[in-house]
Amino acid sequence: MNFSINTDVLLNNLLVSQKALSTKTPAPYLQGIKLEVSQNEIILITSNSDIAIKISIKDDSLSVEQTGEALIPGKVFVDFIRKLDKGIVEISVIDNNVLRIHSHNTDLSLNLQNVDDYPDIVFVMNDQPIKLESKIMKSVIKQTTFATSNIENRPILTGVNIKVEDNKLTAIATDSFRLSQKMIKIPDNLENMNVVIPGKSLDELFKVLELNLEEILIHLNHKSILFEYGNILFQSRLLEGNFPETSRLIPVDFPIIIKFKTNDLTTAIERASLLSLKDNLNSIVKLYLKPDNVVEITSNSPEIGKVVEEVYPVEKAIGTPIKIAFSSKYFLDALKTFNSEEIFVKFTGEIRPFIIQNSDDSGLVQLILPVRTE
Amino acid sequence: MNFSINTDVLLNNLLVSQKALSTKTPAPYLQGIKLEVSQNEIILITSNSDIAIKISIKDDSLSVEQTGEALIPGKVFVDFIRKLDKGIVEISVIDNNVLRIHSHNTDLSLNLQNVDDYPDIVFVMNDQPIKLESKIMKSVIKQTTFATSNIENRPILTGVNIKVEDNKLTAIATDSFRLSQKMIKIPDNLENMNVVIPGKSLDELFKVLELNLEEILIHLNHKSILFEYGNILFQSRLLEGNFPETSRLIPVDFPIIIKFKTNDLTTAIERASLLSLKDNLNSIVKLYLKPDNVVEITSNSPEIGKVVEEVYPVEKAIGTPIKIAFSSKYFLDALKTFNSEEIFVKFTGEIRPFIIQNSDDSGLVQLILPVRTE
Lengths: 374, 374
Prior knowledge:
By secondary structure, chain A is an alpha+beta fold. Chain A contains 6 helices and 25 strands.
């Protein structure tokens, strides 16, 4: 193997590739990047227990003298390329066991691992991928993954449930105390599908999507999901097991509806949550819709003190006065998923789940279970 | 106590005050801010085991209805004021044991501690403070504190030695493997002084100096040092014990002198240090001035590989070829203290301390002990 390429081109692709590098692993080959050099193309392959990434680099600056493949130590290679001066970097394999990286007055020799040790990873494409604007994919991830469980005793809840049915794609995450559901329209000639993607995989995909390319293609299979994004193939394993059926959890009729300015409600809950943050990130805040249509947000810590916030709904609230208590963190997490200036909070009763929705029909529902207080 | 003031004015002063708040302390009063309100002024006092800060606030927006003093829980108070909307905040004490903070539609009640529990802190000024441009004080701190020891077995080395002699102020820090010395000129009618200030105190002072006021006054005493900076008094305890006499450690004659572009040398050492960073932050790098006047920077890790960097001195080096090995971290730390495009590295021999100096006479010397290698 012997080729040269623009340093920045290589680096920008390595930074994506790195997202699937294992740093701690009993399998040393997973700390490596598999480099495949053919006549007009370099391929970078990385993988860990959740995801695998395959990147194809074709660039005017690429000049291949000799094709070949190698398994190179990932972290030190990326760190080194990152520190190189701009220009061209020459990369070659010497004596089958050393990678030489040369640029300007810099020479790095890296001991290679045996490329035959690297597992053969199949990137599974299908004929009918779902095409989405990548900014829509980003918002689906941002609006759902935060609500996955990070407790491993119900592994299925650490993932996001993706369902394709008729002309809808629905993403659902829940940790059993709250639920986030986002629905978007897609072409209706697709096969029905119901899979669960690890939340961590989606968090990594979100970072890759910062490249802000136009489109993303989703290749859904029963064993894996593959996102095709420019020159990048990003594949994730799926979680096995049945995701709970959540459609009946979301109430339909709401006798009490309050419309807020998103910012007013956010700052009031943030301030109210400060009192108990010291001991417990899940501080409990109370919301009280008073008969005079003013909403009181309160929090009380006998040891430290008490906060009372008054928030004025945008319009006269619908329904009767209500008192409800909830985790301020869950409420703030949910509010962050909305971009709109105004939001609706809709209640069915004091000890029943309530939901937050956008003023326009964005297909997004955030559901939160209240907590009982005396 | 009952007063109102512009929220931003209060917040900006609290953020400074907070630098001396203890978060973990067996003495609960050290988690508090002592608030003294007189007719035209608010005073904030905070202190921990190293430093004490006293801030005087006089502002057009200040309106005092009733004077008084209180000991308020520091962290939650600052966090709350930080989250308030812009405007005026009203603060009052109710029933001697509750602080009420009111702004717009927000009400916070905080349980007060007993203000009599707060220790009486004397801020010691003297008649002849040393006046410095505050940006000079910032660079003295930045150029020395990093070289203090963070190992507590020789506590005196965790501090920076400040000496006032004739018309010079000298700041010295050493962890016994490296030494940083900065000398600046001051008026020569000052009393001689030799004290050691905890490095941590200076790190906190550095953050306060981000306000970028013009001047700072230094009130040196035998028991404490007080920095007067606008409306802020920042006092630190001194370390007891004798700082080692370091003047004879710094060589005077240098048979070998190499002039580098600072950036060339920095990036070469950074790249060379990458190989061993994985195991040990103190990676060892070798410098070799070759007979052909090229400098080789190398690093070798049998397990991972080898880096060879060639650096071209700005001018032909003075002296004979030399090979020397050193901690890359120490060298990079030292290089960061120079702003100049070019620097001199001066050697007396392969196993003798070497120094780094600016090309102009900035009064700054960085000394590093080499390491022996085979």
